[in-house]
Amino acid sequence: MAAIIWDRHLATGCDELDEQHRTLIDTFNRLCALAGRGDWNHDEIEGSLIFLRDYTLVHLETEQELMARHGYPLEAEHRRLHSDLVQDLEAIVDGFHRGTKDLTPVTLEYLDQWLQRHIRNEDFRLAEFLRHAEARTRG
Predict the structure, then answer these.
(1) How many angstroms separate the Cα of 134 from the Cα of each of 48, 69, 97, 127, 131?
(2) CA-wise closest residue to 35 among 116, 115, 106, 114
(3) Residue spans of alpha helices (H) in 9-104
(4) Is 18 helix (H, G, I), strand (E, B) or coil?
(5) Which of 70, 102, 113, 119 has its CA 20 to 30 A from that of 52?
(6) How many whole angstroms separate alpha carbon 86 and alpha carbon 60?
(7) Which whole-number Å values give the CA distances from 106 to 55, 92, 110, 112, 113, in the listed order?
(8) pLDDT band at 41 (very low <50, low <70, confident <90, very high)
């Protein structure tokens, strides 16, 4: 699994979201590196999975607070996508902890696709809305 390279195609222009996205991408890249090493330090991988889950929750709370504060019209759908991801992350972390789920290329591909697709689609729309909302406020 190739690492995600941060570039302008992932930058939403919202500094707070972009900083959090970079942390999520760095954590994902760390998981890819750990999975590719071959010696599979279970505790190290589990710690990174837990951090990814927990930091994702922090990030999603940030987005949801911004959506609520600014009256984002697509908030309900965006929250549903967040809820689906949280359920999936919980299942991945729980399964890995119990030993019933490995960190497979399929799992890494899912996380890669979800993260990049969500940033490029949902978060770009949100960031554009926030820029317009802030411009109207300054006005």
Answers:
(1) 35, 11, 43, 10, 5
(2) 106
(3) 15-37, 42-70, 75-98
(4) helix
(5) 70
(6) 9
(7) 22, 12, 6, 10, 10
(8) confident
One-letter identity of residue 106: V
For position 106, what pLDDT does the model report? 93
Burial of 100 (0-12, 13-18, 19+ CB in 10 A): exposed
Give the pTM: 0.91
User: Scanning the structure block, which residue is given the tokens 């993260």?
Assistant: 115
Domain boundaries, the chain: 15-138
CA distance 56 to 52: 6
Select from 1.10.510.10, 1.10.10.10, 1.10.760.10, 1.20.120.50 the CATH code of 15-138.
1.20.120.50
